[in-house]
Amino acid sequence: MATKKDKVDVVTVGVGWTGGIIAAELTKAGFNVVGLERGEDRSTEDFQMIHDEYRYDIRHGLMQDASRETISFRNNPDELALPMRQLGSFLPGSGVGGAGVHWNGQTWRFLPYDFQIKSMTDEKYGQKLGDEYTYQDWGITYDELEPYFYKFEQTAGISGEENPKGAPRKNGYPTPPMKSTPILNLFKEATKNMGLNPFQMPSANLSENYENPDGQTIAQCQYCGFCERFGCEYGAKSSPNVTVIPTAKKTGKFELRTHSEVVEVIQEGGKATGVRYVDVYSGEEFIQPADVVVLTSYVLNNTRLLLQSNIGQPYNHKTGEGVIGKNYCYQILPGAAGFFEEKKFNTFMGAGSLGASVDDYNGDNFDHSDLDFIHGGSISITQTGRRPIGSNVTPSGTPSWGPEFKKATLKYHNRTLNVGSQGASIPHRNNYMDLDPTYTDFYGNPLLRLTYDFTEQDRKLHKHISGVCKDIMSEMGADIIEEASMDEHYDIVPYQTTHNTGGVIMGGDSETSAVNNYLQMWDSESLFVVGASAFAHNGGYNPTGTVGALAYRAADGIQKYLKQGGGALVKSKSKSSLT
After folding, report:
1. Is 274:293 a contact under the CB 8 Å cutoff?
2. Residue 384's domain spans which residues?
3. Which of 111, 131, 324, 331 could disulfide-link to 363, CB 3.0 to 4.6 Å?
4. Is residue 519 one of the residues assigned to a domain?
5. What phi, psi does 512 have (nearest 5°)?
6. Residues 97-107: pLDDT tens digits?
7. Residue 524 sits in a domain of what CATH number?
8. Domains contained in the chain, number
9. Extended beta strands in 258-302, E state
C-alpha cells in the first residue's frame, strides 16, 4: 500500500530546465514545491573528471537507461512496433538537470511565424499543404511570449548578437557574443558574398563571467570542446544545476526527491490532486498530494504519463479526433560537408554553441510562392570540438576500415567542415504517439509507442536547404563537397537530434489542443504540462529557448491559479486564458 505524504502547493515531475524554472519561480513567490526526479542528484563537482569521450559520448553516461526505460518504434501504423534497445536517434537526459546538463547550449527564439504558422501561411499563400498535415497556430503570439524569452535569457546569461532575420528583440543579450574563429569567419565571409546575413550564434556557453538576476554566478567558457553529452566542470555552460535549481533551494521552500519514478497522475473530479511514485531502489510506493501538478519531464515522458493516467483524449490518427499524442515532430538535417586539401583547421577546439548562422532561409524569411513546401531552417557552421572516437569523417567511397580508411581519417580530421541546417518539422496525421499494446516497462506499464516517418514536405525542404548549404560550402572554397542526402525512411539510429516535440500541444481551444497558452490542461485545471511537448510543430532551431520562455509563462499561470483559488478555463477559439 502506498504511503501518503503531506500535501504541498506544487509537485513537479522531473527536475530539469522546466522543473527548475517552475520550482524557482513558485518558491520565490512563497509556495512550497516538491520536485520528483527519477535519476540522481548532480552538481558541477560531479563533472571534474568528465572528459571521457568513451563513457559519456559513446556510452551515454548522462542519458536515460534504455534497459529500464525505452519506447517502441515503427514507421507507419501498419507496422509492428519494436522496442528501442539502446539510445540512438535522440538522447533524453536523466538525473537532476535532465538534458540541460549535456546540451550544447544553442539558445534560440522561435520566429513570430512559428506561433501563427497556419494563419500566416494561409493568408499569404493559401492552402499549400494537404489536409494530412495537421499544423496549426499555437494559441499565443510572439509578442505575448517575448518578455518570457528575455527572462530565460537573463537567467541563463545568454551570449549573442543581433540576428538581422530573427525575431525582434526589445533588449540585447545579457552578455556579448562568444569569440569568433577562422572557421566561423570563413563562413561569415562566404555568406556575406552571397548576400546573406551572418551573425554569431546565441550561446549558453558564456563569453564572460555573469551574475543572473537571482544572484547565481555562471563562469566564462574555456572553449574545451566537451559540451555536448558532457556536463561542464567549470560551471560555464548555463544549466539548471547552476541557475534555477540553486535558486529554488535557497528559498527553503523546495524539496528535491531523487530516485523517484512517477507512474501515475491522480485525478479526481476533473482536477489533478497529486501523483503516485515509486522509490527506484526500494520499490516502495508513495502518494504526493498537491494543489497543482506540473509535468516537467522529457517530451516523450510527459505524453506517456498522461496516456498512462487516462487524462485527456488520446489521439486517433484514423479519425483525427483526440489530442494526447498528436503532432509528434522531429527535425530534418539538410547540409553539406566540405573537404579541404590544403587548409587545416583547429576543429578539436570549440564549445557547444560556438557557431555562426544565417536565417535567410528560416521560417518565411524567403518567398515560398513557387515552392511546394513551407517553412525552412537556420543554417549554421559550428565549432563544437571534434573528438577522435566519434568524428571520423571521410569522403564518400572511402573504405570503412583498413589502411585506406586510416589514411583518409588522419588526412581529413582537421580538413573537414560541415554547413548544416535544422529543418522545421511539420506535423502529419500519421506521426504520433500512443501506448504500446504489447510491450511493458520495468513496472509493468505499457511502453510509449512512437509512429513516425519522413514526409514529402520533409523531403522537399531538405533538398532545397541542402542545395543552399552546398552553395555556401562552395563559396568557402572546399575542394570536395558532398550534399546531405535523406534516407527513404526515418530510422531510430544513428543519432540525429534530441529535438523531439509535440504530444501535448498548446492551442486556442480544447478540440485541437491539450493545453492552453499557460500550458494548463483543458481537461484538468490543476494540471500543467510544461516542455517541448507543447509545440504544435517543430521550428528551424534548437527548442530550449522557446521551452524556457513557455516555462516562465506557465509559472505565471500557476501563480494566478493558486492565488485565485480556482480558475476555470475559458474554452474559447480565441486566445485562451485563466480567469
Report:
1. yes
2. 3-564
3. 111
4. yes
5. -115, 5
6. 999 999 999 99
7. 3.50.50.60
8. 1
9. 260-268, 271-279, 285-295
